[in-house]
Amino acid sequence: MTDFLKDVRYEMENKVNWPNVPDLKVSTIAVGITTIILASYVYGVDQLFGKLFKIILGF
């Protein structure tokens, strides 16, 4: 078990390519903007279908 943990630590320190801070900031902003756009789209479609069902079903 200790050999496994030593190997994991070695790989995490030496073989993993960690992103730098500017890359993380750009990625975070891109994910945030994409999330807002997709959430707005889903909200709009939900509102549209809600109104259509009210019209069709006569609520």
Features of the shown structure:
59 residues, mainly alpha, 2 helices, 85% helix, elongated
**Sheet with the most strands?**
none
Q: How much of the sequence is in beta strands?
A: under 5%
Helix percent reads over 70%
Multimeric state of these chains?
A: single chain
Q: CA-to-CA gap between the ends?
A: 64 Å
Runs in which pLDDT lies below 50 for 5 or more consecutive residues are none
Average pLDDT reading: 94
Radius of gyration over C-alpha positions, nearest whole angstrom: 23 Å
> Structural class given helices, strands, pairing?
mainly alpha
Strand runs, count: 0
SSE ordering = HH
Instruction: Based on Cα principal axes, name the global outline.
Output: elongated
Count helical runs: 2
In brief:
The protein has 59 residues and is mainly α.
Notes on the protein architecture:
- The chain is 85% helix and 0% strand.
- It has 59 residues and is mainly alpha-helical.
- The chain has a domain at 19-59.
- The longest helix has 37 residues, at 21-57.
- The chain is elongated.
- It starts with a helix and ends with a helix.
